[in-house]
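Dear colleague,

Thank you for sharing your sequence with our group. We've completed the structure prediction you requested, and as agreed, I am returning the results in plain text so they can be pasted directly into your records. Please verify that the sequence below matches your submission; if there's any discrepancy, let me know and we will rerun it promptly.
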Amino acid sequence: MATAPPGMPPPPPPPPPPQADQDSLQRYNDSVAAAEAERRAEAERLAAERAAEAERQRAVRAARAALEEMVFFDYDMSDIRDDAEATLRAKVDILRASPQVQVRIEGHADERGSTEYNMALGNRRAEAIRQFLVGFGLGENRFEIVSFGEGRPLQQGSTESDWARNRRGQFVITAGADAINPAN
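Please find the predicted structure tokens below.
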């Protein structure tokens, strides 16, 4: 800033910037603000997409777990128990929403009884499960059944609780695993 010689009045202040410069500055500031708002909106949109995809993946994992959940049977029986019925009904809803999914139903028995008897019992259990599911309008061709009898115990041992864990129906997804949809 210039100073005046002694005894002289100070120089006048510089003139304000021309209006065009102020307009340009305002447009620039507006442009920066708009770009920042657009960047924030895009970041929020991407975050929402990621959250929605994470939720969808969680729901798919839960649906897969429900499809693979075992059901258990009473001693020497192939009737569907009440607790098993609730588990199977949850599978029905998921299978309806996922028409490409196919499942192998594996019937198992505990170690009591002959090998032949337990193979037949495991088969009756797997077939009872399949008929339950087909009874809700699902295609029979979506299910394959197999019996392992006493051959693949879930729990080793010879106590009632061991045997109870081995009297079961297990589910293996054989086709359409990548097309599982959660129930609506």
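Summary note from our side: The CA atoms of residues 1 and 13 lie 9 Å apart.

Kind regards,
the structure core
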